[in-house]
Amino acid sequence: MEKLLARSNFMMNHYKNYKEELEIIEEESKKFKPKPWWAYGLFYCYLLFYGYIFWMEPLKITG
Length: 63
Fold this sequence. Notes:
elongated
């Protein structure tokens, strides 16, 4: 029975710490600011570049 109580105490402490960490993360997320517009533009350019690279016709190398 003592092992059961020790384990339940351990689990209660674990979840208490987990809840405290979640509250900290929640407070930090309230301060979150969205990325500026140019970050989305760069990502779009990244997609276009790799789309062009992977779907273009292979280069013909003459030897």
